[in-house]
Every structure is written in structure tokens, then in C-alpha cells.
Amino acid sequence: MKNILLLTDFSENARNAMVYGLELFGEDVNYSLLNACQEPGDDTDVLISVKDILIDTSNKALQLELDFIYKTFPEKKINVLPRVECGAVEVVLDVISREENFDFVVMGTKGTTSDRWFVGSVAKSVVQHSPFPVIVIPQNAKLKEINNMAYATNLSDDETTLIKLLVDFAESQSAQISFLHIDKSAERIAASMKKFSDLSERASYNKIKYVDLIDDDIENAIIEYTEKNNIDLLAVTTYTTTLLKKLFNHSVTRELMLHSKIPMLVFNRKKYSYIFLG
């Protein structure tokens, strides 16, 4: 049974992401709905009561979210455990990971007034540091069937287990995966075909295809591919640093922003780089 962690700050974006996650993973899943409240920095006796008040406020707000869930999904058997932890979200996730494991974290992003989106500072920190894979839901995104996924890859040897996780997710959605490899060098593109063949054989999934493109602007090529090929979800790793920096930069040009309806699945590659499939 999957364990899914839904993050909330009680905003509309967070609620939208919460609904998206519940619809995506459905029943027979253990959900936790987490609010990370920021405790006072000064550790004095006076401020202890302030922390208690924050926790109490969060618990009441979580109950309202649970009421909303059960009203929205009256026919579904959904089990959601509310929880409050104090501290920055990325720190809370790190502490949780020492004793618990979650298959995915689901969170929302802030949006602009245009039909493009940017990732806020909290989402930026979470995807860069989360020990769990993170599904980032843009503002106002509505769940549709995930038929087409793209994974931006350089086909490194240390991606083997990460790819297995990605394939497992795609298989649960019966989705096609495009392994998107973009390079400035035609020679490196040709050499990568052998690596792809080896990885795809290990994955044992018949809905994988390999796409290689030669382009000087790798990040823009990835984004153009998602838009032209009706990609429903883009998967990247935290080692795709330049792409992530551009996506996280509020001042990037219009052509370097993803379409507002496309969620991202972000893997912390450091966690999986030392594990290999047998």
C-alpha cells in the first residue's frame, strides 16, 4: 500500500494540490496531511504558549481540510491522517524520513496572473532537499489521465534505480514514458543509445520510448518538447540543476516557463545514486 504525504499551508493552491493527489492515487492508500508550522525563534518560557497556540490553530485548520475531503469524496474510502510538525518544511521532511518512508510528496505552487507559473520559495526548498519524490502541482491544475510522461535524462549509470521508480509510477498510470535525452553533441547522442537499451531492458516496460535531440539550449528544448507532445507530467531530478534554476527563477523569460497545466515529478537523485538494480 502506498504512503502519500500531502503538504498544506491551507491556501487554495495547497487545497488544489491535495485534491489532485487524492484523485491521482485514489483509494487503498495511506495519506498523511501535513502542516509545518513555524515555531518562534526565541526559546523562552513566554513563547512556549505561542507554539502551543500555533499547533492548536493548525490542528483546527487540518480538521476543516478533512471535512472538505470527505465532502468532496463522499463515495470513496479515503484514509487521511492529519499531522502538525513545527519547523521549516524541508527540515521536517528530513526528520520524518529518519523513521518513516513516503512514496511521494504532493504539494502546490504559487502562480502568476498569466497562464505561466513559477515555483515559490517553499516549493523550491522542498524539491531541492526532500528525501522523497515530490509531485509539484501548478496553480489551478486539474487532474486528467496521465497518458504521456517525459523524463529528462542524461542516462547516467546512477539513474538505474531512479528509473525503476519512475517506471513503476508510469505503469500504475498505464502511461507512455519518453526518455528525453538532449545534448549539444551528435557523437554523445549516438553513444547514449546503447545505455538506453540497457536501461529499458532492465525496466521491463513496453511503453518506453527514447527521444534524442541535438540542441544548444537543453532546458528550452525540454520545455518545447513537453508542449508540442502533450506531455501530462515532466519528471526531472535534483541534478538537473540548470533546468531547475530556470524554473525556480521568477524573472526567467516567457519561453523558459512550463505550461501552467503540467505537473512536475522531482526525484532527489542523491538518495538513489548509490543503489543499483540486480
Walk me through the topology.
Layout: E1 2-7, H1 12-25, E2 29-37, H2 45-72, E3 79-86, H3 89-97, E4 104-108, H4 121-129, E5 134-137, E6 148-152, H5 160-173, E7 176-183, H6 186-203, E8 208-214, H7 218-228, E9 233-237, H8 241-248, E10 264-267, H9 269-272
Parallel strand pairs: 1-2, 1-4, 2-3, 4-5, 6-7, 6-9, 7-8, 9-10
Antiparallel strand pairs: 5-10
Tell me which oligomeric state these chains represent: single chain
Shape: elongated
- Backbone structural class: alpha/beta
Order of helices and strands: EHEHEHEHEEHEHEHEHEH
Strand order of the largest sheet: 3-2-1-4-5-10-9-6-7-8
Helix content: 40-55%
- Terminal residue distance: 23 Å
How would you sum up the major sheet?
A: 10 strands, mixed
Mean pLDDT: 78
What is the CA-atom radius of gyration, in angstroms?
20 Å
The number of distinct helices, counting runs of at least 4 residues, comes to: 9
Q: What's the total count of β strands?
A: 10
Residue stretches low in confidence (pLDDT < 50, at least 5 long) are 111-119, 247-260, 273-278
Description:
- By secondary structure, this protein is an alpha/beta fold.
- 41% of the residues lie in helices and 22% in strands.
- It contains 9 helices and 10 strands.
- It has helices spanning 12-25, 45-72, 89-97, 121-129, 160-173, 186-203, 218-228, 241-248, 269-272, and strands at residues 2-7, 29-37, 79-86, 104-108, 134-137, 148-152, 176-183, 208-214, 233-237, 264-267.
- Strands 3-2-1-4-5-10-9-6-7-8 form a 10-stranded mixed sheet, sandwiched between helices.
- Helix 6 (186-203) links the parallel strand 7 and strand 8.
- The longest helix is centred in the first third of the chain and has 28 residues, at 45-72.
- The radius of gyration is 20 Å and the shape is elongated.
- The two termini are 23 Å apart.
- Residues 111-119, 247-260 and 273-278 have low confidence and may be disordered.
